[in-house]
Amino acid sequence: MATLSYSHIIHNGLWGNNPNLVQILGMCPLLATTTNAVNGLGMGLATTLVLFGSNIVISLIRDYVSSEIRIPIFVLIIASFVTIVDLSMNAYVNDLYKMLGIYIPLIVVNCIIIGRAEAFASKHGILTSAMDGLAMGFGTTLVLTTLGAIRELVGNGTLFSQVHMMFGDGARGLTLALPENFHPALVGILPPGAFIGLALLIALKNAFDMRTFRVSVDTQKVVTR
Amino acid sequence: MKQWRVNVRFLIPSNELVHTMVQAAWLLGIFGAVGTAALVLTYTMTKERIEINARVPLMRSLQQVVSNDRYDNEITTDTLEVYDSSLRSSGPVTVYRARKGGAPAAVVFTAVASDGYGGNIKLLIGINVDGTISGVRVISHKETPGLGDKIEIDRSPWITKFSGRSLRDPETEDWAVKKDGGTFDQFSGATITPRAVVSAIKRALQYYEIHRNMLFSPLPLLRP
């Protein structure tokens, strides 16, 4: 097994192999919870916490679990972490918890987490797996927050309008609001806006890659001389 | 008689297979136990805060419908569950009873209007002892943002127009939206939503008129 450098892992998680924009995983929470920036941020952080914890534990036990029962064991571990996060959010960030609602328990079936467990954590050391969990988690948090911000600006004319749910009433000053003559396009916060926004983000990322790295994003293409 | 020859030896697992299965069973059991222990720990640590969190929004909503100074009892526990088909609720309706000095002051119905445009609209309807409305608030709904969501207090003061009204003001036939021949405004582009809210309030008022005496008994025990 090749030793992966930490910078490679971080770049992978945030950009090169971004769970939402490249692997196209975790679409359900991405499209459903990004009606505003803070919801996206909260969702991303909750997912990162679970990803971090489950990657570490699965990496710890990887030598003791036979391959026949690895999937049930992974799901057991992931579900335990999700329940812990769910109870903690209910207790400490109750407003945000109520806004995210059913999507917190749904983190259990988020393909990013079981995907990393199977593809990475069960095959690498603890520190490496922890880094990967954090990197992938922050990668999806970035996309969730960005899409949430775009949709909130277009569909509501505000930014960070729910920031007090995460950081308390003292943070209300961080909320932005566009001037009165801006008429928000309702489609932004409705489901079609999510799909359109996501497509734009993927397209932007690919365009950026093609320009900057002169890399073709079609990995099937073989360059022959 | 025909002889049946069936090789059942494959049904009896070999020693190593049994060993693998038993080992797997142990592992699953151990992980299940450890996971459960972690959850029990988290649950006990967060239980109290979760209960407090559940009470605070309820108190806040009740305060908007019946102000604090009008009662001195523990309103969140002084409740009654009513079952009545006239209320058209999908489950029992919780009635919070407000008392001042032991005397009835107001009741608050947690009504659920199931005929909203997007589904259930959960309401708190406060009714004073004399049958007038002390206040109405929408607690949760699935109405269209920008159209039906004007029933929320944050979006529009429409819901405050019900305060002080009763079954005499307006008369029973006028307890409807203007489009249905009543006196209450609907929203341009959204009639179903305000219609559902108005009907739910009307039903609560009618229920109160019939059952007002029952609602405040049993009276709380007087302290010695």
What does this structure look like?
The complex is a heterodimer of chains A (225) and B (224). Chain A is mainly alpha-helical. Chain A has one domain (8-210). In chain A, 63% of the residues lie in helices and 2% in strands. Chain A has nine helices and two strands, in the order H-H-H-H-H-H-H-E-H-E-H. Chain A has helices at residues 6-16, 27-33, 37-60, 70-92, 94-100, 111-121, 126-156, 164-167, 191-213; strands at residues 158-159, 176-177. A two-stranded antiparallel sheet of chain A has the order 1-2. The relative contact order of chain A is 0.17. Chain B is of the alpha+beta class and 224 residues long. Chain B has two domains: 12-65; 68-215, no CATH class. Helices cover 33% and strands 17% of the residues of chain B. Chain B is built from two helices and five strands. The N and C termini of chain B lie far apart (91 Å). Classes of the chains: A mainly alpha (225), B alpha+beta (224).
* Radius of gyration of chain A from CA coordinates: 19 Å
Sheet/helix structural class of chain B? alpha+beta
Oligomer: heterodimer
Would you identify the regions of chain B where 5 or more consecutive residues have pLDDT less than 50? 220-224
Number of helices of chain A: 9
What is the arithmetic mean of pLDDT of chain B? 85
Unreliable spans of chain A are 220-225
Encode the helix/strand succession of chain B as letters.
Answer: HEEEEEH
Mean pLDDT of chain A: 88
Measured by DSSP, the beta-strand proportion of chain B falls in 15-25%
Q: What's the story with the biggest beta sheet of chain A?
A: 2 strands, antiparallel
Strand order in the largest sheet of chain B: 1-2-3-4-5
